[in-house]
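Data availability (excerpt). The following record was deposited with the supplementary files.
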Amino acid sequence: MVSGKKPERTQITEIINLMKRQSPPHHFEFMDPFWVLITTIMSHRTKDEVTDSAARGLYKKYSDCMGLSEAKYEDVLDIIQKVGFKTVKAGRVIEAAKYLREKYNCTVPESLEALTEIKGVGRKTANVVLSDGFGIPAIAVDTHVQRISKRLGWTDSENPDETEVKLRKLIPKDLWLGLNPMMVEFGKKICRPVGPKCEECNVSDFCDYFVKRESEVK
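Predicted structure:
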């Protein structure tokens, strides 16, 4: 892709399909919106296998929103002890459950605005819940999506919220579902933050970062 030139819809579709072939998405342990929410809250700066294990532990002990809302902080902390920032997240997941119990009778709301009113839930987490919990088309921009989008030339912003706006305009809506988990896997396996595997990448021909890197080598 030529830097500064907006890619066509067909090219965007081709790029996304090529990435999908190279990196099938990681799927959540749960499909229930509440547990998608809790898992996503715990996932920041934590490996998927650690997050999944912690979510399984919480589910096994507390079963649902009502159970987790009545949990003791020390017990939750013990279950999620391998999760990054565990001391903060233990409180956050209990608070989220309490909030949903008190305001929504333990029903997870299906709107971005309502979800982001939950303490510790930003646009990224809310969009993950919408897409993976409810099947509502949404684009969650985490560090992987941000990095890949910038390297491809899909955004020039460092701000995830601004990148989300750009991607919503650029990417056909029928491709939004599953986009985040697919790009997360692509970012971990191929388009890594350090030492990206450009020579193995299916979409290097479309990538501003790769073109620039190659020109600098020459």
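Summary of structural features: The chain has twelve helices and no strands.
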